Each structure stands twice: as C-alpha cells, then as structure tokens.
Amino acid sequence: MSATILIIDDEEKLRQLLARILQLESYQVLQAGTIRQGLQMLQREDVDVVICDVKLPDANGVEAVEQIREKAPLAEIILLTAYGNIPDGVKAIKNGAFDYITKGDDNDKIIPLVARAEERVQMQRRIAQLEARVGKTYAWDSIIGKSAAIRQAINLARKVADTPTTVLLTGETGTGKEVFAQAIHQESSRKSKPFVAINCSAFSKELLESEIFGHKAGAFTGANKDKKGLIEEAQGGTLFLDEIGEMPLELQAKLLRVLESKEFIKVGDTKTLKVDVRIIAATNRDLGEEVREGRFREDLLYRLNVFTIELPPLRQRKEDIPALAAHYLDVFSAKGKKGLRMDPATLSLLQGHDWKGNIRELKNVLERAVILTEGGTLTPDQLPLDIQMSVSHSAPHVLSAFDLASAEKLHIQRVLNHTKWNKAEAARLLNIGLTTLYRKIDEYKLEDTR
Fold first, then answer.
1. Of the four, 220, 235, 335, 345, which is 20 to 30 A from 263 by CA?
2. How far is the C-alpha of 78 from the C-alpha of 80, rounded, in Å?
3. What's the confidence (pLDDT) of residue 261?
C-alpha cells in the first residue's frame, strides 16, 4: 500500500501541482489550505508524510510542527518556504521537521525527499511494532500458569511494578526471575527506557566492577578509552542484577551507595556521577545465611529487601506443567515441525518429574524432544531416560510404559555412560557380545549425550 501524503498550503495552484506530481508516483494525497484543516485531517486519516508551507493564514509552519507531531507522532514533516533562511531552518529541524526546503526548487527534488521521509516513517512504525511486541512478550499474561503459587507472585509484582521501590526476586535457579524482572519493568513508568541485565556470577571482581560502573581510560591494563558502565546504560530505566549473592563484598559497598544516594564513581575516576535507575536484584541463595557467614553486607540486604517476591519451584506448581509444556511445544515445533502433539503418557511423565532445574530444565527437555521426534507425536521415547523411568504415584496409568525393554535400555545407557562410551568395555561389563551391543544401541536409538 502506497504512503499517504498531506499537503498544507494556502496557494491552491501550487498545492494542486504538487499533489499531481505525487499522485503520478502512486502516492495517496490529501490537501488542506490551513493548519486548522490539516490538523482535522490528521485526526481522521493515517498520514505518513506532511508537506507544510511556512507562511499560512492561521499559523507559522515552523511553529506548527509541534502541533502536527502531537496529532501524528510517527509522521515526518517537510516544510516549504518561499524565502528560506538559516534560523528558520534550524528551528524547524529542532522542532522535529524532517527537512526544510525552498519553493521554486526543481520539483523533481521533492520525490526523493518524500521517499526518504517515507522510509523513515516505515522504520519508525516497525520499531513501534517491535516495542509493542516486546511489551506483550513480558506482560503478565505471558507468565504461564494459574496455580495459586504463581498467581500470588504475579499479584505482588503487579503491586510493586509502577513504583520506584527496589525489588528482590528469590527462588531456585530456572524459576523465571529475569522474566519477572522484565515484566515489572514493562509495567512501570520506566518502560520506554532501557532494561539492562547482568549476571553477577559471570565475571571476576575486576571485570564485574568495570561492567557495572564503567572505567576511565588508563584505569588498568587494557583500558585504552573511557567506558560507560551498565548502570549508565540503564539511565532512567531498570538495572537487573542477577545472582546478586555472588557479588564481591567490595562491589556491594559501591552498590549500596547507588541505592542510598543515586551516586557512583567509575573505576579509575574521582568524579562522582549521578544516576537515576531502578534496581531489581535476584538470587537463589539465602542472603540471610550469607550475611551470617560474612559473605554479604547486612546493610545492603536491608536496602534490597524492601520488597521481596519469592518465585515457587516447578515441583510446587505441577498443575502448571501442561500449559508450560504446550507453550514450549508450540515454540519449538514452529521451527519446522508444526502440528506436533504430545502423547498423554509423555505429559504424565513430565508431571511426575521433580524438575530440579525448574522451568529452564523443562524448556531444554522439550526442545531436545522436539528435535528427536520423527512422527507427529511426542512420545516418552523422546524424553531423557531418567524421566522415562520415573514413576509418579499420581499417574499409575503410565506403568505400562515400563516394561523389560525399557529397563534394559536404561541399564545399557548407564553402562555406556559409565565407560564414557567405550563400547568394548561396556560389552564386557554387560557380559554380551560387541555385535549385540551395537544392535541394542541401534534398536534403542541410544545416544552419547556427554
């Protein structure tokens, strides 16, 4: 679909000529003789580019740029003037105009200019769509599950989201702490500003300090130029500190200063910088115990512990597993195996598993299972052996899957793992011939998963 152009000019002949030129290039053209008429059209029509005269009966086009922007935030504005001057041109661009050109220039120049403006509009629309999609991705509805445990965590997060309060997310590894942090950010007044995340366990003390707070050139070997830290990158937005319990004590003191005074100092600098960021921290450790052991500052814990949300492990919300499994099955099967369904016995096995790695483990298991599935149904054979052989008291109907062949398959896999897939040694331990072992590996589709 071609772009829509609005021409605002009180000189009718010029306006008609320009409209005809644009229509010959397949643009949809609207016309207005005054700013008032133009603004009314912008309320009714979806306009991509506005071409506006500077001298109009009811307004100055340079001054009207802001009014046009209010009505059509994504539209680009090109100003036309009979007598161009530099101050007006500078002011027009400052007010948000795309360009400022003089009437009487070769009319052929207007087409490339409109085309460039249209490209920028399309880019801005795509960015807006992506931002809306990101907002939807991290909205509360995207946190899957209706169990009492997860709903309680969501309700707490909703209440604290649009406040400046520091939040501490606790829970086992893989329970979705970063997803919650993203959702809190997206539902806050800071959502248009950056969300910056860092895992405190992924860096040494020196690197972590530089990553968070930045450094001055010459602060240490290899620091050839000034570097902005993530805390500056998150200005106006949210800084998510994952695995906060792994942060060294020296850095905990610097973080405490940020929380208390909104100030920090770069590595190798003496100048104090102000920053406006919201801190969301996460840990799978008992920070109270860490304080008692002298590994975490008590005063920092008090600052972080203003509003704590504990995320439940998956084993405490097993009623959510069907919805989670269906979601990840859709995600991974969309990459080439659309329409894939799950065998009821497979779902029973998933619900019977303890999931020590929580949602992250479930996600990884289903991604692997989808890759291994050759038909249209995901069956127990595609699950890891420890899940295949687990028996849930709440799902006695799956016992038929655990026959002698399944036990043999599991035993051979364990022996192969024990021998690091040395097949000759595994055959000796199993007291079977090497040829028989190869046949069993092929029959059971065993894999070296090291």
1. 220
2. 7
3. 94
